[in-house]
Amino acid sequence: MKNKKRLSLYIHIPFCAQKCRYCDFYSAAATQEEKLQYTELLCREIRSWGRMLREQYSVYTVFIGGGTPTCLSPECLERIGAAVRESFDCDALTEFTTEANPGTVTAEHLAAWQQMGINRVSLGLQSAQNRELQMLGRIHSYEEFLATYQMIRQSGNFQINIDVMAAIPEQTLESYQDTLEKIVSLNPEHISSYSLIVESGTVFGDWEENGTLKRVDEDTDRQMYEWTGKYLQQMGYHRYEISNYCRSGMECKHNCVYWIGGEYLGLGVNASSYLSGYRFRVPISVKSYRSYVDQISRFAQNGSAGLQKAIQGMDELEITDQKAQMEEFMFLGLRMMAGVSEQEFYQRFGISMMEVYGDVIKKYQKMNLICRKDTGRVALTDKGIDVSNSILSDFLLND
User: In this structure, what CATH number is given to the domain that contains residue 70?
Assistant: First the structure.
């Protein structure tokens, strides 16, 4: 097992009782029969990839997301968990996360999670203000969130992350502060705080196009962002990524895999993968997904020998050349407070970081936006974090 590479699994459950007004992820309502059929296809896909990858990879993290994973019955979730553990080498599995929506979690779900070995739950709250939840199109109230949180906490088996959102239309600095203060009082292990991004094709996107979306002004958005960092630090939460905070040692290992350029496999409709130097995506429609699973199953009959053919057969296949890998290493890794390692950059690419990015790094060092640490790492300063978007775009290499 020591010679095996680490792999993270993302499993997409594309079902929601109601689509939120800001969401551009693939999700839809479904009947119980459709959910059962999807579970069967998903388990087939998991088993097929397991046959091709088990010899080379050991699973490090698993993340079940959506959509709303708790739209599935506990029985369906247990089938998915069993398929993962039976198909992949999970001896090194350290973190198994599921997303959950307040008001959708039952005692039976908790029992299923324990059976699956889930040890982390990410609850999508977004706001403690019921008026703001209604604005977002959420199906739950803050009171329902509290009941769900307490039920999960009292089981004593799970680390809990709470997602919150800043810059919700018509939100005020005071209402956002009240939300975060209420969340901190619950003492979750992890808090994620993201500013709203309005995407085209969403309800909010349509409202913005026709001029009816009441956006939070930039100054208020900035105040929310700055206050979040200061407040959560005062309350004992360590900021380890631009939008993520945790108690000591409680970082989300799965998300860190994305930020450090690790390999991951996306399973389920519209899930993305980065594997063996390739990026690819599962088809978005359920009809196409069935054909995709049939194709993957055929390649899997040859075990690990079918892996390359399976990847090459993807419709949306992107080869990540060294230039793209260096760019991603920098602008994903710099999102983390620890920054990026000059030694690891050299080990990966055979060239020093300063030879490739020296001019950019020195430019922002002079502006006190980037620092080179004695540990051999390059990181954004506190001031640099505040203007990270403009800095990170400078790490795109010209052709």
Answer: 3.20.20.70
